[in-house]
Queue: 2 jobs
Job 1
Amino acid sequence: MEQREISQAVIGRLPRYYRYLGELMESGVERISSNDLSKKMKVTASQIRQDLNNFGGFGQQGYGYNVKYLYAEIGKILGLDIAHNMIIIGCGNLGQALANYAAFENRGFILKGLFDIKPELSGKLVRGVEVRMMDELKEYVQTHDIEIAALTIPKSEAIKVADMLVANGVKAIWNFAHTDLNLPEDVIVENVHLSESLMKLSYNVSRYRDEHVK
C-alpha cells in the first residue's frame, strides 16, 4: 500500500499526544474520548480524529480510545519502540544537561558517547558515560553504529563537525548550534534555536501586555 504523506503539523502534535496519554496511563485512565482528550490538549476533537486517522484511527465509536493501546501505537509511529544510538558533541552546561536527562533512555534514545575539546573534561563521567576528546570522534562514529548526534557547540565549529559526521554515516542531527546546516537531503536535521523560542515568548508577553494593561 502506498504510504501517505503526513504533514509536519500532524507529526509535531504526535509527541504531545504521546505525553498526555502517558500521563493518563500513570493516573490509571483506561479509555478516553476525543472530546475529553481535546479538553486536556486544547486541540479540537475533530483535529485529534483527523490526526489519528492518518495512521488508521485507533478509536471505536461509542468507546473512544484505549489509552494504553493508543500510547503504544503512537510510540511505534514515532519510532520509540526501536533503540536509537546517539552521541552529544559539546559538554558544556547544555550538553551535560542533555546527557543527564534520564527520560531519553525511557524513549529508546541510548546515549553512547560524549565529546568535547577541553582536556580537563577528558574521562569525566556523566550518568556513567565517559567524555572523550574530539580527535576520537571520527573513529568512534565509524565503529559504534551512531544514528543521532546532538550538537551543542559554537556555530563556528558546527558546520565542519556536522559534515564529518554525515560523511561517516550519521543520518540525524539534533542541532542546538545557532547556524543552519546545509546537509544532504537524506540527512534529517532538527534545529533547536533556544533564543528564537525565547523571542517568540517575548513577543507574546508584549502582545498580552499591550492588550490587557491600560
Note: The longest strand covers residues 109-116.
Job 2
Amino acid sequence: MSASTDEELILTRGSEAGAALAELFARHHHRAHSLCFRMTGDSSVADDLVQESFLRVMKYQKTFDGRSRFTTWLYRLVRNVCLDHLARIEKERQMNERLTLEARIRKDLSKPDDRIELLHKALYRLTPEKREVIVLSRFHGFSYAEIAEVLECSLSAVKTRAHRAMRDLHVALRELESEV
C-alpha cells in the first residue's frame, strides 16, 4: 500500500481502510506533530492534538472529495484541532505561561541557541492567527496560495496577515531583547 498516493489512501474504503489510515498516519504524524507543537509550544499537548487530528481524519474521511491535495485537507483539519485547543485555554494559564517565558529569557543570550529560543518566545507572543501564518509559511514551507486554502481565506488576506505577523514578530523580538 505504500506505493499509493495520499489521495488514493484517504479514498480507500472497506477492509483496507484501516491499513490505509495507518499508512497516512505513518506518513504525516511527524509533520502534524510539528505543526501542533509550533502552534501550542507544548510537546505533550501536541501529542494529544495529533491523536485528536487523526481521529478526525477517520471520522471525516468520507468528506475528502479530492478537490485539493490530501495534505492541504489534513493541515486544515490539524489547524482546526489546534485552534479548538487554543480557544479552550484559560486566561490564567496564558498569563502563567507568559510569566514563565519572560523569566526564562532573562538568562545570558551569548549562546547561538539562545537567539533561536528568543525567536520562539517572540513567536508565542503573537496571536494564534498571526502565529499560524508564520508557522505554515516559514517552518512548513507552504506557499501563500496553499495557506489561503488551509485557512479558507483569500490570497490577499494571507499576504496581509503574513506582513502584519512579521511586523509584530519583529516588535516582540525587540521587546524581548530590551528586557534582557
Note: The CA atoms of residues 130 and 161 lie 6 Å apart.
